[in-house]
Design a protein that fits this description.
By secondary structure, this protein is an alpha/beta fold. The chain has one domain (about 35-60, about 85-225): P-loop containing nucleotide triphosphate hydrolases (Rossmann fold), CATH 3.40.50.300. Helices cover about 35% and strands about 30% of the residues. The protein contains 8 helices and 10 strands. The strands form 2 sheets. It has a 6-stranded mixed β-sheet with strand order 6-7-8-3-9-10, with helices on both faces. A hairpin with a 2-residue loop joins strand 9 and strand 10 (about 220-225). The mean pLDDT is about 95. Bound molecules: adenosine-5'-diphosphate and magnesium ion (MG). Magnesium ion binds next to helix 1. It comes from Anaerosacchariphilus polymeriproducens. One of its GO terms (molecular function) is ATP hydrolysis activity. InterPro entries: AAA+_ATPase, ABC_transporter-like_ATP-bd, ABC_transporter-like_CS, MacB-like_ATP-bd, P-loop_NTPase. Belongs to the ABC transporter superfamily.
């Protein structure tokens, strides 16, 4: 199996006036294609910062990062936007759906930003909509759906572009435990279908649904299994 992610000695500092906060410390992380990895750590340990690095949403100060063999540390901002759109499917705790768009339109967003036609985008997302059982909700607005349904829409949106990795930050954090378990079962199913998943969580019970767990404590990673 090839590594879809290779991080070598990543360091990230936040500048706060004269102070510099060392938030990620010599992070080394390899993730194989097809893995389902949980990154587990308490609040303030650097999970979201690491997610932003993996997702190419923010820059690190030192180190090398290869995403699907692309040297992210050498990539200019403009190209990075395309890489982000093509390689990463983001899933957030609070879904981040566009409230004025229908379910269908929300799911199509990553395809439309790639510049294909509306008709092509419609066709390309049909299978994903079926897979996630959203076909009866396509004309609903996000506010007309339950939290679990909204997260399904967000997962569909993350999947449609066939990204190299699904990157989820506390994906069950806003859901009751029953609905959270449904989302985790769905991740398991998507992983069984071949999708690479990285899930960030503070909850060991949630992390246990992954194939592997790494711990992050005070900006440092350590392997658990
Ligand atoms: N934009 C920022 N500027 C300054 N400090 C930040 C910023 N984002 C996060 N931090 C700090 O970095 C540390 C890690 O934060 P974060 O990655 O959000 O942790 P987690 O997601 O594990 O709760 C915390 O001490 C936080 O206060
Ligand atoms: Mg966080």
């Amino acid at each position: 199996m090839k590594n879809i992610i290779e991080m070598k000695n990543i360091n990230k500092f936040y500048k706060m006036g004269n102070e510099s906060l060392h938030v990620l410390k010599n992070i080394n992380l390899d993730v194989e294609e097809g893995d389902f990895l949980a990154i587990l750590g308490p609040s303030g340990s650097g999970k979201s910062t690491l997610m932003n690095m993996i997702g190419c949403m923010d820059r690190f100060n030192e180190g090398e990062y290869y995403l699907d063999n692309v040297a992210i540390h050498e990539t200019k901002e403009k190209k990075l936007t395309n890489i982000r759109n093509q390689k990463i499917g983001f899933i957030f705790q609070k879904y981040h759906l566009i409230s004025t768009y229908s379910v269908q339109q929300n799911i199509m967003i990553p395809l439309l930003t790639r510049g294909i036609t509306y008709q092509q985008a419609l066709e390309e997302c049909t299978d994903t909509i079926q897979l996630l059982g959203l076909d009866k909700r396509l004309n609903h607005k996000p506010s007309e759906l339950s939290g679990g349904q909204q997260q399904r829409v967000a997962i569909a949106r993350a999947l449609v572009g066939n990204p190299a990795i699904l990157l989820a930050d506390e994906p069950t954090g806003a859901l009751d435990s029953h609905t959270g378990k449904d989302v985790l079962s769905l991740f398991k199913k998507l992983n069984d279908m071949g999708n690479t998943i990285i899930m960030i969580t503070h909850d060991l019970e949630v992390a246990k649904h992954a194939k592997h767990i790494v711990n992050i404590i005070d900006g440092e990673l350590s392997m658990v299994n």
